[in-house]
Amino acid sequence: MSEQFNQELSLSGKIPSGHFNAAFEFTGVWQTDAANTKALAFDGVFITLYNIAIEKSQVVLCDHVKEAVPSTWEPAALASFIEKYGTHVVIGVKMGGRDIVYVKQTYTDQQHLSPLEPVDVQKKLKDMADKLFVDGTGQNISEKFVKDHGFTFTDQFPSSSYSHTAEEGGSNKSRHHSEWCQTVQFEPDVISMSFIPITSLLSGINGSGFLTHAINLYIRYKPPIEELHQFLEFQLPRQWAPVFGELALGPDRKQQSSPSLQFSFMGPKLYVNTTPVDVGMKPVTGLRLFLEGKKSSCLAIHLQHLSSLPKTFQLEHEQIGNISDPSSERRYYEKVQWKSFSHICTAPVESEEDLAIVTGAHFEVGDSGFKKVLFLRLHFSKVIGAATLRKIDWDGSPAMGQKSGIISSFISTRFSTVQKPPPKQPEVNINSAVYPGGPPVAAQDPKLLKFVDTTEMTRGPQDSPGYWVVSGAKLNVDKGKIYLRVKYSLLTLILPDEDM
């Protein structure tokens, strides 16, 4: 439907416009909104009194606008250009009035989700629109429609929304649609516009390709305009360390000398790769547990990082994060299966410095009596210069539940009804690569996969505001399975005022 809206605005592509987002009250990243939406529909009356349009061939940008285009990838200058001149140029306006009903269903809240299928929604919407716009008897029909079919007003529930708007043109004091129609000619308003991308007017200008890329990122991910500079700073290629080409594909000779874990009597051995992974002075944006080796029997920690350091970031090595205190960590030891076999340490691993971020990691296997204990160690670097810690957020694998104490678990089970989570919808993937999820890997041994959750814990441009970095992590265990919880931080750079 976003493509249909774009065609009415003389725009190409499927990325939603601001008009589409406002109509259906979308505020997030469009791939996430699309994956969470079950159905969209609208019906209404458009009264066009007159059009004002300019021929595309007659539109020319002023010289000072062309001169403001950065010739290289300069996030600060690109963000400044977009904020000052926008992304599109208006070439046409329609005046009149419109009275429209919008309906939206989403998957985000199973409790309030309407049971109607998209075809039923369209049919019910048509019936309601006929009464509102044709019969003129629909003064209070919207409330009845909501009660009968499980829809809710947008300001009450985000799961299924219904809205009736008559704000463009005409008098707001009219009680019936027929009365409103009579007032449009006396109080017309803008009901539609036609646009062309500003980059289409920059052909041959040095640096227009960089501006096009920046505008596409801005439209696709919708970061706050005041944070666009830092968002663009982080839109660098991302890669995993170690890279797939560095992983051993031959016989697992090294595993014989690697430490191993065993979680039950006669259970399989899980070898542990204790080699440090260092990404250099680059921000880490994600972590994952990975089973390496020909038999996928060696547990390793992998790091996703930016391919280079953003220009506004300056890092120096931080030593505090590598210090561990065995006496304080002992209370975090947790069994995976049997109590007398290998444990993991679930202590949070983070720096005492607020501005420290992760730039390396490794596993360590220690002894606690007759038991082996798995530790996660992180290496930190400190962001120096003008930066402040804005927000931190711990995130865990969606496939794993959150552990709670015995008492709270009992109360939740005994006195609360179990809420079935909404079905997970497939993500909208816009990556045209042959393997958008990464190179293919060998089939993993299910015997060891039942002990390790290999979900990739990452944050990228789709996670608003788009410049999260990893600043800590911890190992967890749930129902005999080891998984990661990752601490993300937003570091806001205090940039010099260009006007001073």
From TrEMBL:
Domain of life of the source: Eukaryota
PROSITE patterns per the UniProt record, alphabetical: MACPF_2
Pfam family, one: MACPF
Residue ranges crossing the lipid bilayer per the database entry: none
Domain MACPF: 1-232
GO biological process terms on file: plant-type hypersensitive response; regulation of salicylic acid mediated signaling pathway
InterPro entries tied to this protein: CAD1/NSL1-like (IPR044663), MACPF (IPR020864)
Database matches in SMART domains: MACPF (SM00457)
Record GO cellular component, one term: plasma membrane
PANTHER family: MACPF DOMAIN PROTEIN, MACPF DOMAIN-CONTAINING PROTEIN CAD1
Annotated protein name in UniProt: MACPF domain-containing protein
Species annotation: Hevea brasiliensis (Para rubber tree)
